[in-house]
């Protein structure tokens, strides 16, 4: 009688990678390669588009590949599976745990200001978009960030007072980002209305919306839950500067 030796398999080795794993790396090597600057094991958004970078694997070799892509005067952001660990040549400027949330097919339970006049934003609006994001700080926003996808806004007396748009894109998924409202106009349903419009447009393309939000931003998380988003994983934002 012959015997068969069974090998215990690590479940992690059997796990099929998800498109939203290592999402910046995946976006800049698939649907958004035209916005990417890359070198061997690292890539980043072009400096006038954004301050996010991706590594094929967060090891010293990849961090060394990233260094030539980042100037001495700027910071760069990474989405990591685990909290950042010190790497030679880099200084940690800021860190934050984020939730990566994905839209589920549910009916939203939120007032969205359906009577609002939503307008599509473009290059002509870039100065106002920069002013609004500088004031409200929804995340890094640069002169050409709006070129990453559709951006929608709400105006009051001709002035841009709320906006939301698309940022990272991987096969089958598009990120909702830069959701912000002028402090003098909050509580009126602008964010919900803009996000609902974006979600509809993304789904009409046969894609699934997703987003990232700080784990301590409970007000925003509550809104996103009511709009139909559910947490997929926690990721760790690390903002770095070269030594």
CATH topology of the largest domain: Aminopeptidase
| Beta strand count | 11
Q: Any idea what the radius of gyration is?
A: 20 Å
List the uncertain runs.
1-7
Question: What would you say the CATH architecture of the largest domain is?
Answer: 3-Layer(aba) Sandwich
Assign the CATH superfamily of the largest domain.
Answer: Gcn5-related N-acetyltransferase (GNAT)
Computed structural class: alpha+beta
* Biggest β-sheet: strands ordered side by side in the sheet: 1-2-3-4-11-5-10-9-8-7-6
CATH domain class of the largest domain:
Alpha Beta
What is the secondary structure topology, with strand pairs?
Layout: H1 11-14, H2 23-28, E1 36-39, E2 42-45, E3 52-55, H3 60-66, E4 76-80, E5 90-103, E6 118-121, H4 126-136, E7 151-156, E8 159-170, E9 173-181, H5 190-204, E10 208-214, H6 218-226, E11 229-242
Parallel strand pairs: 3-4, 9-10
Antiparallel strand pairs: 1-2, 2-3, 4-11, 5-10, 5-11, 6-7, 7-8, 8-9
Question: What does the model show?
Answer:
The chain is α+β, with helices and mostly antiparallel strands. The protein folds into two domains: 11-98, Aminopeptidase (3-Layer(aba) Sandwich); 101-233, 3-Layer(aba) Sandwich (Aminopeptidase), CATH 3.40.630. Helix content is 21%, strand content 34%. It contains six helices and eleven strands. The protein has an eleven-stranded mixed sheet. Strand 8 (159-170) and strand 9 (173-181) form a beta hairpin. The longest helix is centred in the C-terminal third of the chain and has 15 residues, at 190-204. The radius of gyration is 20 Å and the shape is globular. The chain starts with 10 loop residues before the first helix and ends with a strand. Mean pLDDT is 92; it is low at 1-7.
């Amino acid at each position: 009688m012959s015997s068969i030796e069974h090998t215990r398999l690590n479940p992690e080795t059997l796990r099929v990678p998800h498109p939203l794993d290592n999402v910046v790396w995946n976006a800049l090597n698939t649907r958004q390669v035209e916005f990417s600057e890359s070198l061997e094991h690292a890539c980043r958004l072009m400096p006038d588009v954004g301050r996010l970078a991706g590594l094929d694997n967060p090891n010293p070799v990849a961090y060394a590949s990233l260094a030539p892509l980042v100037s001495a005067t700027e910071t760069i952001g990474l989405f990591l599976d685990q909290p950042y660990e010190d790497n030679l040549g880099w200084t940690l400027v800021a860190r934050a745990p984020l939730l990566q949330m994905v839209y589920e097919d549910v009916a939203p339970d939120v007032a969205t200001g359906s009577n609002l006049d939503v307008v599509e934003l473009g290059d002509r609006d870039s100065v106002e978009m920069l002013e609004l994001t500088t004031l409200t700080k929804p995340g890094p926003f640069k002169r050409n960030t709006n070129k990453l996808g559709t951006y929608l806004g709400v105006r009051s007396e001709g002035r841009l007072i709320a906006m939301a748009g698309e940022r990272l894109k991987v096969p089958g998924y598009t990120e909702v980002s830069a959701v912000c409202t002028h402090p003098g106009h909050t509580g009126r349903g602008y964010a919900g209305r803009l996000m609902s419009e974006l979600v509809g447009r993304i789904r009409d393309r046969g894609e699934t919306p997703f987003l990232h939000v700080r784990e301590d931003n409970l007000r925003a998380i509550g809104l996103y839950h009511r709009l139909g988003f559910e947490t997929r994983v926690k990721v760790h934002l690390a903002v770095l500067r070269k030594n």
